[in-house]
Amino acid sequence: MINIVIFGAPGAGKGTQAQLLAEKFDFLHISTGDLLRQEVRLATPLGLRAQAIMNCGDLVGDDIVVPLLDRALRQRSTLPNPDDAVDPWDRELKGEPHRPEGCIIDGFPRTVSQAQTLEFMFSRLQRKIDCVVAIDVPRDELVRRIHERAAISGRADDTEDVIRHRIDLYDQQTQPVLDYYRVSGMLVTVDGSGEIAETNARICQTLKLVMKNKE
Ligand code: ADP
Predict the structure, then answer these.
(1) How many domains does the chain fold into?
(2) Residue with the larger pLDDT of the pair 194 and 158
(3) Cα of 97 to ligand 1 centre, how many Å?
């Protein structure tokens, strides 16, 4: 099982790429933004606390996002048992849970403290992060893309001021996470300024190498 973090500023295309990779490689895709939006839609106590913060483009507190991620990691992926010789498809036919080939996390960590928390959560599940893929896109292109997305997404946080605030927060709080991963040797940066398919091909190339090294 391979564990990947996909990283990038708002508008870099993390969600799109994570979705494509999840389909291609049979990875479990966990997006903290999607988990939070789901809580907001369902008007759960966590969702009600998160809603106003998200609408302003601020980061929600770790006390909200960490339990959500923890729950998703535990519920949606069962640990593969190395001694288990049963074919995964066989298992599914018998109604047992499908075990994905890996896990791709999008939207987390956004601070250095979240990066440390993620390592802790993974170690408790006897797993570790194999690779952090950072999608690099120039700021002007980020703003252009979010504007384009805003016209169709209907997301309350896709307005001019909030978009700029989210990108500023990324520069201040999230960018340092890249240095954290660079030092640990896990970071791979991919040019994401072009078409979706081009970026996807670059990431796939990287991940194939990571998977090969893990064999
Ligand atoms: P984007 O990358 O375009 O900002 P996301 O869907 O990843 O979109 O996140 C939307 C919002 O959800 C963020 O602006 C923030 O308010 C909240 N959020 C998502 N992930 C986290 C996180 N790891 N920590 C704090 N807040 C988060």
Answers:
(1) 1
(2) 194
(3) 29
The predicted model scores a pTM of: 0.87
- Ligand 1 binding residues, C-beta < 6 A: 10, 32-33, 36, 53-54, 57-60, 65, 107-108, 110, 114, 157, 166
CB neighbour burial string for 165-200, b if at least 16 within 10 angstroms, e if fewer: bbbebbeeebeebbebbeeeebbbbbebeeeeeebb
Distance separating alpha carbons of residues 13 and 21, to the nearest angstrom: 12
Residue numbers of the domain that contains 188: 3-214
Tokens 């999608």 locate to 135
Atom of ligand 1 nearest to the CA of 8: 2
Pairing of strands 131-136, 2-7: parallel
Measured in Å, residue 122 CA sits from the centre of ligand 1 at: 20
CATH number at residue 39: 3.40.50.300
18 closest CA partner among 100, 86, 81, 84: 100
Average pLDDT, the chain: 87
The CA-based diameter of the chain, rounded to the nearest angstrom, is: 54
Which residues make beta-bridge pairs with 28?
A: 103
In the β-sheet with 187-191, what is the strand arrangement from edge to edge?
27-31, 102-106, 2-7, 131-136, 187-191
